[in-house]
Design a protein that fits this description.
With 471 residues, the protein is mainly α. It is built from 25 helices and two strands. It is globular. It starts with 5 loop residues before the first helix and ends in a 17-residue tail after the last helix.
Length: 471
Amino acid sequence: MPERDEVSWNSIISGYVGSGEIEKARDLFEEMPVRRNIVCWTSLINGYGKEGNLNEMLGLFLQMLVSVDDVGPNSATMVCLLSACSSLSDFKLGKLVSIFIDVNEIPLNTILSTALIDMYLKCGDLEKAWRLFDGISCKSLVSWNALITGYVQRGLLEEAVRLFYLMQAESVKPNEITMVNVLSACAGLGALELGREVHIYLGRKGLDLNVILATALVDMYSKCGRLIDACLVFVKTTNKDVALFNTMILGLAYHGHGRDSLAVFAEMEKNGPDANDVTFIGVLSACNHSGLIEEGRVQFSNMVKKQKLIPKVEHYSCMVDLLGRAGYLDEAFEMIQNMEVPPDSIIWGSLLSSCRIHRNIELADKIGEAILSSQDPNLGFCILLSNIYASVGRWKDVARVRRLVKEKGIKKPSGCSWIEVDGVIHRFLVEDSIHLQSKEIYEIHEFVTNQLKVEGYVPNFDFVLKNIDGM
């Protein structure tokens, strides 16, 4: 080119950034003979952000503020900074960027507002996220999706569903991202009716049931106990990817259909994508839930030797539980000792439960020391250990465990469950008395318990998890 203006320089720099050649883009940026405008500055800042190089990104941004180019950041620049902070979970820097936006009165368009909402949600500041969202005069689908996605990721599933209904009331049409998040909320809440509505909506609106939506549907139906519907969606979906196979394998495994789960895995090995570590969590869970001991040993060995995958805590947890329940306590204990990663309290607790079942007090002693010496012992496992000691009359050890629980101030979070009745999601806490129908619920519970006793049911209180002396 005989003459290269700002546009041509910006285009070539943006092209190199887009193809991931950030250093070549930086070299050209430094060579520019013409004044560098906000477009090339922002393009390069965005490149470092997508690369995950926050130091270079921030350094370039500060350089821009004091450069002789006399260029000030615009909304696009701030979106690039916020997106990098959100994707890399650097919320401290994200908050500093938001303060910079306020102080310098950078105009808040829809895209920048959405980026701020996403950042606030990911750093847990729900109040600011909602306040910013509520202040948007013309809320776009992107803004709605950012808020719903953030609520789902934070585990605020009921609120996410309410936002979805509010979005529909505002006549904003959902897209694939909306539906995937709503289905994820339905799966967590067990809201089958709403999940079905979403499925019907997809068909009625002629939306393409791609593999991402199919995976969300299979997950929702599986967690709501509708395995037939989950299997139908799975079978009808073409071009199945590893996520869809994993979801189907896990769904069948958790409902005790171990053989069916392994059959899906066999199909995956024959015609599907390569298995990953999540696949083997499902496979080993299938063996665990169905008591397939030898199959579990074989699959764990194949994962390590054939697939060359490094076992994670979740894989060891499945194997320890499988072996422990079957009475192979020594083998399970040896596996824990040879783990390539440090065992967590869940693994120790799983083996401790097996010690309770098989009344192996000697091994329970060893496991108890591991649990009690951890920085944050699980209260449930402490109670279990205390009750194991109580069952054999070791009251000094019972007192020792109780004393440790009190000294460390270990508390148990309240259990919570949901149920959907006539399209309405009801939420319950342990010993809940807030629900409007709590009195009737407790009366029916008492009636059912009495009927069971009339029919000859005798509860077995051996090793029951008792809260002894306030534990």
